[in-house]
Amino acid sequence: EIIKKAIQHKGYALVDIFQPCVSFNKINTYDWFKEHTYYLDSRYDVTNRIEAFKKSIEQNKLPLGIFYINKNKKTFEQNLKTYKQNNNPLYQRKIKKDKIVKLINLNK
Fold first, then answer.
1. Among residues 55, 64, 70, 62, which one has the least CA distance to residue 13?
2. Of 30, 39, 51, 61, which sees the most CB atoms within 10 A?
3. Sequential pLDDT tens for the chain (108 residues)
4. Can you say how many angstroms the Cα of residue 4 is from the centroid of all Cα atoms in its chain?
5. To which H or E segment does residue 102 belong?
6. CA–CA gap between residue 97 and residue 108 (Å, rounded)
7. What is the pTM of this model?
Protein backbone atom coordinates (compact mmCIF):
# COMPACT_ATOMS: atom_id res chain seq x y z
CA GLU A 1 0.00 0.00 0.00
CA ILE A 2 2.84 2.43 0.84
CA ILE A 3 4.65 1.74 -2.44
CA LYS A 4 1.38 2.24 -4.33
CA LYS A 5 0.83 5.62 -2.63
CA ALA A 6 4.44 6.65 -3.33
CA ILE A 7 3.99 5.90 -7.03
CA GLN A 8 0.71 7.80 -7.17
CA HIS A 9 2.19 10.81 -5.34
CA LYS A 10 3.01 13.69 -7.68
CA GLY A 11 6.59 14.67 -6.92
CA TYR A 12 9.36 13.14 -4.83
CA ALA A 13 8.58 10.17 -2.59
CA LEU A 14 11.05 8.18 -0.49
CA VAL A 15 10.22 4.61 0.55
CA ASP A 16 12.51 2.91 3.04
CA ILE A 17 12.05 -0.87 3.06
CA PHE A 18 12.75 -2.93 6.17
CA GLN A 19 13.45 -6.51 5.20
CA PRO A 20 15.31 -9.19 7.13
CA CYS A 21 18.22 -10.99 5.51
CA VAL A 22 17.49 -14.62 6.32
CA SER A 23 20.94 -15.76 5.15
CA PHE A 24 23.34 -13.48 7.01
CA ASN A 25 21.46 -11.47 9.65
CA LYS A 26 20.34 -13.69 12.51
CA ILE A 27 19.50 -10.70 14.77
CA ASN A 28 17.00 -8.65 12.74
CA THR A 29 14.65 -11.52 11.97
CA TYR A 30 10.95 -11.45 11.12
CA ASP A 31 10.18 -11.79 14.84
CA TRP A 32 12.55 -8.92 15.67
CA PHE A 33 10.73 -6.66 13.19
CA LYS A 34 7.35 -7.66 14.65
CA GLU A 35 8.56 -6.66 18.13
CA HIS A 36 10.42 -3.48 17.12
CA THR A 37 8.05 -1.83 14.63
CA TYR A 38 4.57 -0.37 14.71
CA TYR A 39 2.21 1.20 12.17
CA LEU A 40 1.29 4.87 12.48
CA ASP A 41 -2.40 5.09 13.30
CA SER A 42 -5.04 7.05 11.41
CA ARG A 43 -4.88 9.93 13.95
CA TYR A 44 -1.25 10.70 12.98
CA ASP A 45 -1.03 14.04 11.11
CA VAL A 46 1.05 13.48 7.94
CA THR A 47 1.17 17.25 7.32
CA ASN A 48 3.06 17.97 10.57
CA ARG A 49 6.71 18.30 9.58
CA ILE A 50 8.08 18.52 13.15
CA GLU A 51 6.22 15.36 14.17
CA ALA A 52 7.58 13.60 11.07
CA PHE A 53 11.15 14.45 12.13
CA LYS A 54 10.43 13.16 15.64
CA LYS A 55 9.05 9.90 14.25
CA SER A 56 12.07 9.48 11.97
CA ILE A 57 14.50 9.41 14.91
CA GLU A 58 12.56 7.10 17.22
CA GLN A 59 14.73 4.20 18.38
CA ASN A 60 12.73 1.94 20.71
CA LYS A 61 10.13 0.98 18.15
CA LEU A 62 10.40 1.97 14.50
CA PRO A 63 7.28 3.55 13.00
CA LEU A 64 5.92 2.28 9.69
CA GLY A 65 3.72 4.26 7.34
CA ILE A 66 3.63 7.64 5.66
CA PHE A 67 5.56 10.14 7.77
CA TYR A 68 5.11 13.39 5.88
CA ILE A 69 3.28 14.89 2.92
CA ASN A 70 3.74 18.51 1.83
CA LYS A 71 0.86 19.30 -0.51
CA ASN A 72 1.87 22.97 -0.87
CA LYS A 73 5.29 22.37 -2.39
CA LYS A 74 5.65 22.38 -6.15
CA THR A 75 7.24 19.43 -7.91
CA PHE A 76 10.63 19.76 -9.61
CA GLU A 77 8.99 20.01 -13.03
CA GLN A 78 6.57 22.72 -11.86
CA ASN A 79 9.56 24.90 -10.91
CA LEU A 80 11.17 24.68 -14.36
CA LYS A 81 10.56 27.46 -16.87
CA THR A 82 10.30 24.83 -19.60
CA TYR A 83 6.96 23.67 -18.21
CA LYS A 84 5.39 27.07 -17.48
CA GLN A 85 3.71 27.39 -20.89
CA ASN A 86 3.50 23.72 -21.81
CA ASN A 87 2.92 20.85 -19.35
CA ASN A 88 3.76 18.14 -21.87
CA PRO A 89 6.97 16.19 -21.20
CA LEU A 90 9.85 17.20 -23.47
CA TYR A 91 9.84 13.88 -25.34
CA GLN A 92 6.22 14.49 -26.40
CA ARG A 93 6.81 17.97 -27.81
CA LYS A 94 7.43 18.76 -31.46
CA ILE A 95 11.04 19.57 -32.26
CA LYS A 96 11.63 22.96 -33.85
CA LYS A 97 14.64 22.30 -36.07
CA ASP A 98 15.38 25.98 -36.69
CA LYS A 99 15.90 26.53 -32.95
CA ILE A 100 18.23 23.53 -32.72
CA VAL A 101 20.29 24.76 -35.67
CA LYS A 102 20.49 28.19 -34.05
CA LEU A 103 21.78 26.64 -30.80
CA ILE A 104 24.36 24.54 -32.63
CA ASN A 105 25.65 27.56 -34.54
CA LEU A 106 26.05 29.77 -31.44
CA ASN A 107 29.72 28.88 -30.96
CA LYS A 108 30.69 29.21 -34.61
1. 70
2. 51
3. 999 999 999 889 999 999 999 899 999 999 999 999 999 999 999 999 999 999 999 999 999 999 999 989 988 888 888 888 888 888 898 888 998 898 888 877
4. 11
5. helix 97-104
6. 18
7. 0.69
